Amino acid sequence: MDTLENTNGLDLLSKAKRVIIKLGSALLINEDGKVNATRIHAISRDVVKLITEGKQVALVSSGAVALGRDALGLSSKSLKLEEKQAAAAAGQLRLMRAWQDAFQEHNIPVAQALLTIDDTETRRRWLNARATLNTLLEAGAVPIVNENDTVATEEIRYGDNDRLAARVSQMIGADVLVLLSDIDGLYTADPRFNDQAKHIPVVTSLSADILAMGGDANADSGVGSGGMATKLEAARIAMTAGCATLIARGDPTDNPTDQPIEAILNGGRSTWFIPPVTPETARKQWLLGAIKPSGKIYVDEGAAIALSKHKSLLHAGVTKVSGQFSRGDGVEILGPDNKPIARGICAYSSDDALKLIGCKSSEIESIVGFKGRPALIHIDDMVTI
Ligand code: GLU
């Protein structure tokens, strides 16, 4: 098994292929409700450096509601739901413009991805959101994710972008999640009120003692919704997915041109949460342990060999489909001798998979009436046994 024991955080960051950086509202929006363009430029320079090192980077950016408030003149301290939704609609556009301006200087395209909780919690939709984010990252773009606050209501929302960022990290198999806000890591107590509070540089297990440290350690700036408790929850989600989490200040000094990731690489204070396993191992454990197969897919010799060589399962290699399942459900894959050879998440329902037995990818649309994905089960959604 691929474990991460005894690895240090900076090593993980330097080896990471995919990094997600979450930025809190207080960091990006000034107290007067205007965007902090200098800081956005500083962060974009950090991102460009990571990209130059060959990494793929996505951002989860808060700030839409705070920016939209100013744009719409909504000054009341607590906004009604519809006011918040309206503020997000106006602010999101301004937020994206600021990011686009910053990345344009480096010729890097940015792309907006607004997600609702269903996009990460319902597997059928999760497959779609993941495919889009993967495509953007592979095209060299920086996806900028936020919650779709304009349609999300209290009962159907992530609530805070720390958790959203952790779900996105899990979805795209990120190696490192960086939570940048106005606190430089985890302390034994809230350092603003307790001068005995000790900083904790590394956490390898989220014990009850650690979780108890999640008092509301967010700054008193009045914008944004995450506190230390939500950051610990985000770290828990990410760690389960094999993704390391880093909590650090997004404003390492009073100088807004200072780059937060650079400050960490230069020894700046932060807390690393190191998971026990890599994202790859975590994904395999999840596919084998948490996903109950709802159907069986039988494949021919050629397909069995292809799977053993880490290739996706195409319809052409399928000989039989049994059981009733929907797109996004787990299935078992059996070889020509009827023995299980793999488990995976199926990109087609059992009804469509049946119709597509033995077909070429080019025939999919004419048979099922929609332009489906070429693979019945993508290799990223499969574990061979
Ligand atoms: N999605 C919210 C916004 O863009 C922020 C939520 C959060 O800060 O956790 O304003």
Can you walk me through this structure?
With 385 residues, the chain is of the alpha/beta class. It folds into two domains: 9-278, Acetylglutamate kinase-like (Carbamate kinase); 291-384, Roll (Archaeosine Trna-guanine Transglycosylase, Chain: A, domain 4), CATH 2.30.130.10. The protein has 15 helices and 17 strands. The chain has helices at residues 9-15, 25-28, 37-52, 64-72, 81-104, 117-121, 123-138, 161-172, 208-211, 228-240, 260-265, 279-289, 301-308, 350-355, 364-368, and strands at 18-23, 56-61, 110-115, 142-147, 176-181, 186-187, 199-200, 202-203, 244-249, 270-273, 295-299, 313-314, 318-322, 330-334, 340-345, 375-377, 382-384. The protein has an eight-stranded mixed beta sheet with strand order 3-4-2-1-5-9-10-8, sandwiched between helices. Strands 13-11-14-15-17 form a five-stranded mixed beta sheet. It has a two-stranded antiparallel sheet with strand order 6-7. The longest helix is centred in the N-terminal third of the chain and has 24 residues, at 81-104. The protein is globular and about 65 Å long. Residues 217-224 have low confidence and may be disordered. Glutamic acid binds next to α4 and β4.
CATH level-4 homologous superfamily of the largest domain: Acetylglutamate kinase-like
Total DSSP E strands: 17
- Give the quaternary arrangement of the chains: single chain
For the record, the count of structural domains works out to 2
Largest sheet: 8 strands, mixed
Strand content: 15-25%
State the secondary-structure class.
alpha/beta
The assigned CATH architecture of the largest domain is 3-Layer(aba) Sandwich
Q: Share of helix among residues?
A: 25-40%
| Widest sheet: strand ordering | 3-4-2-1-5-9-10-8
CATH topology of the largest domain: Carbamate kinase
Put simply, the count of helices is: 15
